[in-house]
Amino acid sequence: MHTCLRVKLPVIKSVLPLMAPILLTVLLTCTQGESGGFRGIAWGTNIRELSGMSLLAEDAALKFYERKDDHAKIGDVDIERVVYGFYDDQFYSATLYFQSFPSFVQVKRVFLDKYGNPTSYNESSNKYFWGKDEVSVFLSFNTESDEGRVFYSFNPIGSKVHED
User: Fold this and answer.
1) Which residue has the higher pLDDT, 70 or 42?
2) Contacts 24+ apart (CB under 8 A), 76-79
3) SS3 (DSSP) at 20
4) Using one digit for the tens of pLDDT, what is the confidence trace for 60-104?
5) How far is Cα 121 from Cα 138, in angstroms, rounded to an integer?
């Protein structure tokens, strides 16, 4: 057993530096928004269970928060702002904002690689939608403001928002 490990370890050590950028990109994008949660916050978590959240806006049962010093990336694209949405104090959405059309192209490429072809899209208006069982992802870019955004929605709670 030890001999086998000795033989394989140099191979792993030589390949790891080459794979590190790819693994980092995959880890960063995979931790953004999945069926289990978003950036370490499980979907449905009560806002009272979270620290460091600052209220931005509220409208009846909807509340939107930011976390101080919340830095994020999708691939190589820096996310300028992350807004967390809560309905009846339960975490149900996250919106990520970024700048520039080249950044939009990079984010779209990451999402196409990760999620495959979108469920629906309008290429002329730069809008892409991936519908999943529990989590939907919407990517859009506004050419007038030169701003893009990614919207993650946890469907079991998000559907209630649309009913009200």
Assistant:
1) 42
2) 76/25, 76/106, 77/103, 77/106, 77/107, 77/110, 78/103
3) helix
4) 999 999 998 888 999 999 999 999 999 999 999 999 999 999 999
5) 9
Torsion angle in degrees (nearest 10) through CA of 136, 160, 50, 111: 10
Nearest C-alpha neighbor of 29 from the set 138, 111, 148: 111
DSSP H/E element including 138: strand 135-142
Q: Which residues contact 13 (CB under 8 A, 6 or more apart)?
A: none
Q: What is the mean pLDDT of residues 120-136?
A: 93
In the beta sheet, which residues pair with residue 2?
Answer: none
CA 99 to CA 146: how far, in whole Å? Answer: 6
Domains and CATH numbers, the chain: 31-163 (3.40.1000)
E strand residue ranges, 29-132: 33-34, 37-38, 41-42, 53-59, 62-67, 72-74, 77-79, 81-87, 90-99, 120-122, 127-131
pLDDT of residue 124: 93
Rounded Cα gap, residues 72 and 33, in angstroms:
12
